[in-house]
Model the fold of this input.
Amino acid sequence: MSTPVVPENAKVIVVMGPTGAGKSTFIDYATKGVASGIGHELKSYTDTIRVVKPTWRTSDCRPVYFVDTPGFNDTYKSDIDILILVTNFFLEAYHYKVNIDTILYLHRITDNRMGGSPLKNLQLFASVCGNIAMPRVVLVTTMWKLVDPAVGLLREQELKTRFWNGMIARGCAVERFDDSFESVQHIITRLPRHVEDLDAYQEGLGGGILVSCQIADQRKPLKETEAGVALKNELDKSLKDTKEAYRRLKRLSQRQDNPVLKRSLAVEAERSQKRMEETASEMEELDLSLSKRLLRWYSKPFVNAVGEGDTAPVGHSMTPCTDTITAFRITSSDSDPHPIVLIDTPGFGAKENPVIFGQVTEWLTKRNIHVVSAILFFHKITDDRITNEDMKAWELFKSFVGEPTMKTHVTVLTTDWGNYKDHENLYHIRETDLKDQFMKGCQYKRLNCPCLQSPPELQTLTASDIVQAIAQNAPSMLLVLKQMAGGKAYLDTDVGAAGKRDEQNQRKSDKGIRGIVNRLVGVLVRMLSIAAIASSLFLAAYAAPQLPSKALFQPDFRLPTSGNALWYRTPAANWVFESLPIGNGYMGAAVFGGVQNDTVILNLDDLWAGGPYSDPVYNGANWNASYAPIASSIVEHSCLSNPSKDLNGITSEAGDYGTFSSAGNLIIARDGTIDFSNYTRWLDMDQGIVRGSWKENESDIRREYVCSYPDRLCSHITSSTKALARVTYSIAPIPDHSNLQQICQDNTTLVLRGNAGSNGAGMLYEIVGKVQISKNAGSSVTCNSGVITVANATDIWFTWTGGTEYDINAGTADQHYSFKGPDPHSSILRRLSSASPMSYTSFIQRHVKDYLAGTSQSFHLEIGQKPDWSRSTDQLIADYQAQELSGQKSDTGRTLLEWLFFNFGRHLMFSSARGNLPANLQGVWSKGAWAPWSGDYHPNINVQMMYWPVETTGMDITQTLWDFLQKTAIHRGSETAQILYNVSRGWAMHNEINIFGSTGMKGLNIPNYNPAEWTNYAASGAWLMTHVWDHFDYTGDVQWLRKQGYPLLKHTAEYWLDALQVDRSTNDGSYVAVPCNSPELPQTTFGCAHWQQIIWELFNSVEKALEILGAGSERSFLLEIQKKRSKLDRGLRISAAGQLQEWKLDLDNSAHLDHRHLSHLTGLYPSYSIVSFVPGSDGIKPANLTRQALLASSTTTMIKRGIGTAPDADSGWGKVWRAACWAQLGDATRFYNQLSYATSRNFAVNLFSLYNPFNTADNTLFQMDANGGYPAAVLNALIQAPDTQNLNEAITITLLPALPPSWSQGSLRGVRVRRGLEVDIAWKAGTLTSVTLKAPRLYGGKQIKVVVRAGNLTKDLLVGRGNSIKVL
Done:
């Protein structure tokens, strides 16, 4: 049985009462109709017991589980079925120590008498619960709206005094339910106060439920419990009354001459007879001891019977199922000189079936068991149906065993024949159906189980008979093991692939809640069981798949022939400057590649200290709602009357904002002093793998590091030509974290657990790593005190995975913005164990296939680079820097390095953006407990820049960004909009965003600090919406646009429709954003150019999206957008000095002319308000404004803004943004000079982008934005296709607009442009040689207008979906 994962602090509430009392209605109100249905595996139970988990928690943040039970006199179930069902549930809860807080008993106040079904229900309920449960019982009256209040009060009083008085005296409470969520909350908050009786688990009182106590602790059969006795009395009375009615009807029918009446009375008599038979059957069912029923599920009768108690355990299963897979040596065999080994495996439904097959496979392979004498498949003949889940399990079983082994070695053992005489025909029919319809193609035998003796005429066999017979079988190899011996990974075998499909289908259907019921009410799940019996004579007949010796000594272990690698001749000494990053989105690893001691920094993408985990009053930097009138007053009046006012008055304290944190360090250590030579390490960016090699002591050593997305695992493998004497593996924790545990799960498995941060209450996280080795003479693996020691192995494969309790779906007001999910332990172990049977070759192949598909199969760039294996990457950078300083630029190595920078930026994004969260400021790599700028999300340039190259180069990695906005920012951002700006529609957030929905205007308690300069950026959501529209525009994914894209656009636009204000300062009738700061500049004013541009573009995106989807019911919203946009200030003004004005008022300050941000040039690049300007477009703007004038003013602004190095900053992102803008202006010289300047100044030798490159190594800051901006800038020099306001405007594609002379030859394949288009180009000597335009993702059935420009070439085209046009 699986261990329950219901949190210890969960509030489990059982809802009981008569059929029709309103139990389901109560739960529907309690869950607001959006509960996570939990359900059961067996269909017959799914329809009767429903376990649901609402999205909200109690006031003390406890999760709530409601259990909806059937009432007696149910429409479809007999009373005995209901009693057994309810009893089983309470027994299971007791077995797994699930504390039932409360039992709600519902009663309709509309019932005008207390008799019949209501009275029977009450009596049976009281007998099930007993006096010990009464303090936790609440009697709830329902349906008050359907009765006159005065009548209801009289009935309630009578219930209390005549029928409920004994229960109330023993501690029951009484409440009313009035069909509302508020009423549910009221009842929940007043649940039992009598906690002194809730220690019943420790006191052996059946978990506080009488029927559990009497069966589990007092060992009474069901019929002898109070509930059983009460039901038996009811059945006796019913049987007696029915018999009397039957006799009376028979007599009456015999006396009648009227044939119609005679027939009617006869029919009624037949019905009475049927009721008597059903009642008698229920009484017989009641006579069967429930403890015997449970014995079938909890005991191992077959295993125990085989050796008649003389069995010796051989060993345990692999973690985590040591209590579920057990091998027994049967020592009493006389017919075979070799002992018989029986392997007892977990039953289907004990946990996910694909997991069970994976665990059984691993268990067998680890013990070199490839052949078996038989496989026994158990089935209870008492089961009255074969469910869909049963058939899924059977199909998996067949793919696990394979043909012809199914025919020759599989025996279906039917059990539970003890009631044969009472159900002779039925059982034979079931057995025939099994053979002919369901479980076909194998042998059948009947098992005589000691717990339920079957009659001799059935010719059942004892367990010993069966074992002695099948032990003579010739051995056969299981299909799954054959396929793995042939080189397949487990997930590529028939059973592995089928299991994966089942899991994917199940996730789609039940939204990820499958399996919770197995842990909460698992006794209701059928326990079908497999036993594999193998003769020890054949245990070593085949070699089990394992890590081969010299695994890395293969032809493909080499530097890539393409030259696409960062490579070095020494190990890394500093993580920011020299470590090499790999990742799968969920996890990151920074690899040092040491020889004597190797270090890998381990990161989990959602591991954060702080937030609601450690700060119980954390509120996302929002004020309390009572502040709203003050805040909105400041917002409304200050800036329009005083445009340079700061906003100290409306910024709130950030609370425990938190920080992205490292999980720990993997340390691989070796003894002694090691002399080595010929050292090389490299990051292969064709495959996303870090490798290393060297020579030592006449041995060749090779290493490989991988983080696989398909398997959510990372690995470190060492391979040597000679066995390594001693290597240790440990996971060193971060000292600033708390509650740290470093343990050995077993001899091959390490576990690190802790809480992020130092206060002990932070986010729970866990890393688990497992070692596999080649089998060499004298090799061994041991684990002690959190350290694995490997001795005398040539090949060592260490695989790790991890997780946290962070849950992005728990970030709503109903869940108190807790963002807290379950303990990650079980899911981590499942991932690790499911991959264990996989070969290393298959593991690598799966990773490489995924990496190639995502990075280079559809996109490729050449700029004339050539591989250079004479100079390592650090030497290339040193030479590049020397050339920049001397001014003597040479093409030697420069183009290669720039090409590597391009590919590295894409590698970082692909490796960090596909996990639980989007890539943060450092992607998914950080060292220690704190990250610069908290490793958060700065959406005033940094987040956007990282994602600039994603759509154009075809990387499908943006889903986490959309989910992040939808599930963290919008929920809390709606509160920010209301509190801070008095806007009730839409949402708002500002500049610094953590993973806990920090959307408020974050203040900091720093003297002489103006927080508005950094945090007043409510336009962040609007700018991110350009990425939402771009995703559709590049992919043509209409389904995504409808489901997620448009709702994001709409919610964001709703805020601005209400937040924009009429400009009362210049009185030009325009709408402006107020208050605004141009990002990270001190002037707080209104009408900032950057804000106005992106809000205008947001309104355009809404309009274009509705043109694609059809306005329909959104037509009035579209009209509102169009009306507001027509009066929107466009943010496009040219100052007297010829610059593009950054604010509506000319507030330019010479002290900030060279500021790092280029915010008011957003419309030049990356967006289109400037570069695609059309004089007749709507909005308020100066008269006679032209595109040429705007481009000229942008050039002037760029010159005055400088080269990105100034007193305010020396960031890489500021420089590559400038390079992209110069490319947009068509200035190839300035573009390349700016890009070269950034290349030589702002990047480490491992190509990480550095914010402050000339600080010391210990405090230089890695910030990944420039790594994303670099490939975007390069592409913008090669191809441009800016957006337009309307879909009917032509898309203009400009080719080689800013091509530098050093890139005189090259090609682009598969580069994406807007409207779902794609372009392939090649050039030589700076001149295009070929151009092909394709439309694989063009949406809709219409043709679109495309203008292709390149030098003197201009072509006007009409393009339709699927077209491929040879332009040149």
